[in-house]
Amino acid sequence: MLTLYYSPGACSQAPHILMHEIGTNHDAVKVNLRSKTLDDGSPYLEVNPKGSVPALRLDNGEVLTENAVILQYLGDRAGSDVLPPVGDFRRYRVLEMVNYITTELHKSFAPLFNASAGDETKHLFRQQIAHKLDYVDRRLGAGPFLFGDTLTIGDPYLFVISSWADKMIGLDNWPE
C-alpha cells in the first residue's frame, strides 16, 4: 500500500486530495516539519533526507519526493483523465500548469512563511504572487477545474496554493 507523508496545510495536501479523488488506497503519516519527526517520534529524515513534504513510499519501498513528481506518478496510475496519456497534447498542458504552480507560485510563498523576511520583501513577493495569480485567472476557463469539466493533477495543487493566497494576500481580486 502507498504511504503519503504529509503536514496539514502544506503542499502535501495536494496529493492527499488527489488520492481521495481518484480512489487510491493509501496510508497517511503526519510529519512534524519543525522537529522532522513522525507522530510515533521516529525521524522523518530517514524517509526523506530533504526534510520536506510530501513523500510517497511505494509498495516496493522506494520513496518519491517533490509534489509535481508525486502528482504525476499518481496521475499516471489513476486510470482516468486526471493526467492524459503520453502523446496526448493535453498531457503537456496539464504538466505545464503543474510546473507553473510549482516553480512560479509555490516557491514565491517561501518569504511569506519565513519569519525573518522583512516587510519590504514580503510586500514584493505578495505583488509577484498577485501577478502570477492574474495569469492563472486568465487561464481558467468556464471551469469548474483548470481545464474545464475534468479534474486534473493541477487542481488539488492550485487549491492548496489558493488557500495560502487567501490567508496571506486575500483573494478579493479573484472572486471566482
Any overview of this molecule?
Helices cover 44% and strands 11% of the residues. With 176 residues, the chain is α+β, with helices and mostly antiparallel strands. The protein has a five-stranded mixed sheet with strand order 3-2-1-4-5, with helices on one face. Helix 1 packs parallel to helix 2 (67-76), helix 1 crosses helix 6 (154-168) and helix 3 packs parallel to helix 6 (154-168). The radius of gyration is 17 Å and the shape is flat. The N and C termini lie far apart (37 Å).
Keywords:
176 residues; alpha+beta; 5-stranded mixed sheet; 6 helices; 44% helix
Quick overview:
By secondary structure, this protein is of the alpha+beta class.
**Helical region count?**
6
The assigned structural class equals alpha+beta
Strand composition percent: 5-15%
Helix content: 40-55%
Number of beta-strand segments: 5
Largest β sheet strand count, sense and barrel closure: 5 strands, mixed
Beginning-to-end CA distance, first to last residue: 37 Å
Biggest sheet strand order reads 3-2-1-4-5
H/E element sequence: EHEEEEHHHHH
The general outline is: flat
Radius of gyration: 17 Å
Query: Stretches where pLDDT falls below 50 for ≥5 residues?
Result: none
Mean pLDDT: 95
